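Supplementary Methods S3. Complex input for the 6-O-phosphono-beta-D-fructofuranose-bound model.
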Amino acid sequence: MRIGLLNSGGDCPGLNAVTHGVVGAATQLGWEVYGFRQGYEGLLSPGDYKVLKVEKTEGILKVGGTILGSSNKGHFVSKVGAGGVRAIPTELMDEAVATMKGLGVEALICVGGDGSLSTAQQFYEHGFPVVGVPKTIDNDLAATAMTFGFDSACHSVVDALDRLQTTAESHKRVMVLEVMGRHAGWIALYGGMGGGACSILIPEIPFDLNKVAETIKHRDENGFFHSLVVVAEGAAPIGGTQLYEETKEDGESRLGGIGEQVAKQLSALTGKDTRCTTLGHLQRGGSPTALDRVLGTRFGVKAVKLIEEKRFGRMVSYQQYHVGSVPIKEAVRELNLVDPEGEVVEAAKSVGISFGD
Ligand code: F6P
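Predicted complex, serialized as structure tokens:
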């Protein structure tokens, strides 16, 4: 048997671990793996691919990015704006399917976030055997308790906060760190808790900066003259809206700027010297953590198993320490958001972290 593999959407640490898992498991079954380059674009005629043999994937487990490349734009984008889905034109689907059939590819593994998996679902409904693997550093897919890449992203946030803390302390400053997280504040929450932030602002909890300023002043009164504030890019003040650097008609608009705004306003409210750092794509690059390497490998192996069992139209899913699967259709429907009343937020509040609410 010959199967196809592609990575679609924004990259994240652990993608190569998935490839390692897919190629390892497929090779043991005597199958061949064709890796399509730059996501779905690689399916356009005549097909842009490389044959992935075990020798080619040796040592990639620890490598960041993806040896196949990825894309979050192009012909097969199915996500439009916030929550809209675009139907991929039938001629394009036919072309892609013909490319795969011409190469003898009998099933396809699509590794991607909700938008890319919506495209995978369209291929499945078009009659091509597909399985999905969830990928999002934001950890915002409800159908899986965790995705690879999230832990590595949190690790980058903690590392940045550890560095910001020392310079903040030297200058008695407030340091604001803007991190990724469009709809879900998981990276801000875990990174902020792990890195000792006094305040964490997330999309799920609209904030009032007066509350954050009170926390900072309280720290000052207790002799802690520096403070770390983490802001998710998708966070917004009570009654306000998310800030965009660039708005797009097609695909996802680019969030950005909330960190600077929070820093300016906190400086005015507290009278303290305040600086903002935007961590950006440092969260997406670099070597994956041990957890992401293992999770990625397990996801890849499971995807091959789903094909072996002919359970198409399903997405690999991690639930209660076990890698299982769910229908892709269900997986793309619901976001995994931070519960403002949940145990994690409660624990953070118990150690004095303010969410600005
Ligand atoms: O969806 C993952 C994500 O990392 C978001 O948190 C972020 O808004 C976006 O990708 C950035 O995408 P791009 O690489 O296109 O700037």
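The mean pLDDT is 96. The pocket of 6-O-phosphono-beta-D-fructofuranose is lined by residues 10, 72, 113, 136-138, 180-182, 233, 254-255, 284 (CB under 6 Å).
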